[in-house]
Amino acid sequence: MTSNDLYVEYFGFTERPFTLLPDPDFLFWSRAHRRAFSVLEFGVITRAPITVVTGEVGAGKTTLIQKLLQALDDDITLGLISNAQGGRGELLQWVLNSLSIEADLNGAYVSMFQQLQDYVIEEYASGRRVVLLIDEAQNLSVEGLEELRMLTNINSNKDELLQLILVGQPELRQMIMRPELRQFAQRVTATYHIGALDRASVAGYVQHRLNHVGGSGNEFTSEAIALIHEHSRGIPRLVNKLCDFAMVYAATEERRVVDGAIIEEVLEDGIFLPAVHLAGDAAE
């Protein structure tokens, strides 16, 4: 059995519309996602020292990152870091590795820092600039964030030679606001938090994904959409999970439309874990 046997062929889709893998081709431009992407672009274009974008797990941050990577100009050298952790020196090793800089990772910190600085200056002299994009940045420690701030001191008299883009969960934003990181916060030029989708946006999101795979966009009733919004709390990844299960149920019962009853069946069977409501995570 292939994934297409689940319901794709039954509904006449070209592929599953509600997979969990981040795919920029499926990106739905909600107001929040459009603004977040604008902030990312603003940070790159204006050579902002530090740009920060946060959002709940499954809010679509990684998909936005992939979209940004597609849009970057050829004069940008990108270092992409995911799930970086560790104390002083270890983060610098992650940075060197992301930029494919050959270095003695067991060497002195000063030596590794000098290699990074020389590399960044050489790129600048060649008409290029270096951008470090750090995903899951909420995993960094206070010391790690402070180490990153020190890296932004690599600059010319008028241009930022090294830019940082940090993407992570809401804890990142909270950490940056701590008193001991006030110097870091002062270097953050642009920041945005991706809130949950409201009910209308969930409806648009579901329709968009259905249309993208050749569907009519009307495979879900308004009652079903209301339940999906309620139990997913407007988090795209959870919307995908619930819709995916619902379409399997509909195909199994040879029904062309997912209504509220099918969503209720999925929920009653306990195969979908609903979102935990977080205070302050209001829909935008």
How many helical elements?
Answer: 12
Gap between N and C termini: 40 Å
Could you please say which CATH topology of the largest domain applies here? Answer: Rossmann fold
CATH class of the largest domain: Alpha Beta
Structural class: alpha/beta
- Radius of gyration from CA coordinates: 22 Å
Q: Tell me the strand percentage band.
A: 5-15%
Strand order of the largest sheet: 2-3-4-1-5
Mean of residue pLDDT values: 90
Per CATH, the architecture of the largest domain is 3-Layer(aba) Sandwich
CATH homologous superfamily of the largest domain?
A: P-loop containing nucleotide triphosphate hydrolases
Ranges with pLDDT <50 over ≥5 residues? 278-284
> What is the domain total for the residues?
2
Write down the overall geometry: elongated
Report the order of strands and helices: HHEHEHHEHEHHEHHHH
Number of strands: 5
Major pleated sheet: 5 strands, parallel
Helix-residue proportion: 40-55%
GO molecular function: ATP hydrolysis activity
Protein name: AAA+ ATPase domain-containing protein
Pfam families: AAA_22
InterPro entries: AAA+_ATPase (IPR003593), AAA_22 (IPR049945), ExeA_AAA_ATPase_DNA-bind (IPR052026), P-loop_NTPase (IPR027417)
Quick overview of this protein structure:
Residues 47-191 form the AAA+ ATPase domain. The chain has 284 residues and is α/β, with parallel strands linked by helices.
Please describe what this structure looks like:
The protein is an alpha/beta fold and 284 residues long. The chain has 2 domains: 31-194, Rossmann fold (3-Layer(aba) Sandwich); 197-268, Helicase, Ruva Protein, domain 3, CATH 1.10.8.60. It has 12 helices and 5 strands. It has a 5-stranded parallel sheet with strand order 2-3-4-1-5, with helices on both faces. Helix 6 (142-151) links the parallel strand 3 (129-135) and strand 4. Helix 10 packs across helix 11 (236-252). The longest helix has 17 residues, at 109-125. The chain is elongated, with a radius of gyration of 22 Å. The relative contact order is 0.17. InterPro entries: AAA+_ATPase, AAA_22, ExeA_AAA_ATPase_DNA-bind, P-loop_NTPase.
